């Protein structure tokens, strides 16, 4: 038997003004998107914003439905919209924020497993790392790539 260990590294910031201009831009856009989400059931409003390689920002928010799980997470709304409109551009980074009662959550929120798998798909398609930025009121965490959040991924599909 072998015992193995997985570790990840990420950067933690106390304030958005410590981020680069591009990172701050998508963090601000993700926070703004929380105000537009449709979450009448959970009251958990999530926003996501993507920075594409051409510098453009595409954002989205969660959309709930009474026929759960027919809704869609903010991350997938943003990614699918960005890739439908810009299929040849690569995603450089994505920021994710959530709020309850109009207040950004104290701790960062993380993408669900389905969103992580979608991020991996488009990172693999783009063949470059995709930075993940999770936003909380008290701290912001920056992960260099989706591999940090999805170390054992489903990615070996035979051709």
Multimeric organization: single chain
- The tally of structural domains comes to 1
Strand content: 15-25%
Classify the fold: give the CATH topology. Answer: Cytidine Deaminase, domain 2
Supply the number of helical segments: 3
DSSP, total strands: 7
Question: What is the CATH class?
Answer: Alpha Beta
Largest pleated sheet: 7 strands, mixed
Provide the residue-averaged pLDDT: 93
Shape, please? Answer: globular
What report would you give on this structure?
25% of the residues lie in helices and 25% in strands. The model has no long low-confidence stretch (mean pLDDT 93). The protein has a single domain, classed as Cytidine Deaminase, domain 2 (3-Layer(aba) Sandwich). It has three helices and seven strands, in the order E-H-E-E-H-E-E-H-E-E. Strands 1, 2, 3, 4, 5, 6 and 7 form a seven-stranded mixed sheet that branches. The longest helix is centred in the N-terminal third of the chain and has 14 residues.
């Amino acid at each position: 038997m072998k015992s193995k260990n997985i570790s990840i590294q990420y950067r933690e910031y106390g304030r958005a003004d410590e981020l680069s201009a591009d990172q701050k831009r998508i963090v601000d856009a993700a926070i703004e998107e929380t105000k537009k989400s449709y979450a009448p059931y959970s009251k958990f409003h999530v926003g996501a914003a993507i920075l594409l390689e051409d510098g453009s920002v595409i954002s989205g928010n969660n959309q709930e439905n009474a026929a759960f799980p027919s809704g869609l997470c903010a991350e997938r709304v943003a990614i699918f919209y960005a890739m439908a409109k810009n299929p040849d551009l690569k995603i450089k980074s994505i920021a994710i924020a959530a709020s309850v009662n109009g207040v950004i959550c104290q701790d960062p929120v993380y993408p669900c497993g389905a969103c992580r798998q979608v991020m991996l798909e488009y990172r693999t398609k783009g063949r470059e790392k995709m930075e993940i930025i999770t936003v909380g009121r008290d701290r912001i965490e920056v992960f260099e790539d989706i591999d940090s959040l999805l170390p054992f991924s489903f990615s070996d599909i035979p051709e």
